[in-house]
Design a protein that fits this description.
Ubiquitin-like (UB roll); 4-stranded mixed sheet; 2 domains; 37% helix; Translation Initiation Factor IF3
Length: 169
Amino acid sequence: MQNRIPINNFIRAKEVRVIDEKGGQLGVMNIFSAIDLAKERGLDLIQVTEKVEPPVCRIGNYGKYLYSLKKKDKKINVKTKTELKEIRIGFNISPHDLETKAKQAEKFLKEGNKVKVGMMLRGREKAMGDYAKKKVISFLEILNSLIPIKVERELKREPRGFTAIISKE
């Protein structure tokens, strides 16, 4: 959220466009008459935006206004939350276990997360990179048959194995 929102005497403009508590336009007013009007109604004059000339101010309860802004921010944050989940595949993984891992990855993708598929190679397994690459590709094919996927980062050989990042289309 932003810093402090100017209210009442902290608003610096000489003239403001005023909106009443029900959302009706009251027009452009002198700042002092707008503050007096808000005080008469037992409410605050809250500066909604300063990007326009004259700034827009609303007559309302300051606490309720802050609460609604906080609620709006929380709603936006919930929608944009995506995590990177990781699925690790072993070098000697069986076909049935690949399907099980694919179902787990499908669950992550349906939740809106991205999935990092990784296969770690140890010792002599590093020499058999082609076999390992085929295993990861077959995993991606199984997953693609369950749910349409989009490859964010191609299958990449790294010093300790293979990794790829995928998301839901």
